[in-house]
Amino acid sequence: MKLIFVRHGQAVPHHDDAGRDLTDFGRQQAKQTAEFLVSEGLIDVIITSPYNRANQTASIIFDELVVAGQELDFITVNRITPDDNPKIGINDIEYALRHKYGTQMNGLTVAIVCHMPIVAHMTAILEGDCPSHFELAECRVLQAEIIAEGLAHQIRRFVPIQP
Question: What is the mean pLDDT of residues 21-40?
Answer without folding.
Answer: 97
